[in-house]
Amino acid sequence: MIFSLFRKNPRRTAIAVLYTRIATASRAPALYTALGIPDTLEGRFEALSLHVILVLRALRSLPAPAGDVASDLTDAFFQDLDAAHREMGIGDTTVPKRMKKLAGSFYGHADAYEAPLNASDEAALAAVLGRNACGTEAPATGLARYALAAERGLKEQDLTAILETGPVFPKPEDFA
């Protein structure tokens, strides 16, 4: 019984690899230098959230077990945020309050991006991304084009491709 604790869980490993690939894509320097996301703690959260949201949307359109993968990916995202806050030295009593605020922000952004992404409405998405991801009232047109291209590319991948080779994101510098 005790030895089962030391066995590798292939599903957990696949989710960890998927999350790492998404996090790596969200750290592309051109997102910050060319597309206007501030290179701050908040800006990095916004970039990571956008990428996670795009992958979750793609998973939502795929057959089972994509729903389970989406749930596990969401868990990995919030576990990473929790761990990062604890690493920064934020006290144990404060972390749950911050996590609640971050979850509200994440799900609020997912809702705000939903209609423009569904309609492929570049102008509406640029306005929302400008406010949310870039922290400005100016539309983030390049970032909106990037997100729409990422959305199209992710919709072309099946679950096996997403898990084995990772989600494919365009080069941010191509949208500057």
From TrEMBL:
- Record-annotated Ubiquinol-cytochrome c chaperone domain positions: 34-169
Among InterPro entries, the record links this protein to:
Ubiq_cyt_c_chap, Ubiqinol_cyt_c_chaperone_CPB3, Ubq_cyt-c_CBP3-rel
Q: Which residues form the signal peptide?
A: none
Against Pfam families, the record matches this protein to: Ubiq_cyt_C_chap
Q: Which family does it belong to?
A: Belongs to the CBP3 family.
Name it.
Answer: Ubiquinol-cytochrome C chaperone
Origin organism is Microvirga terricola
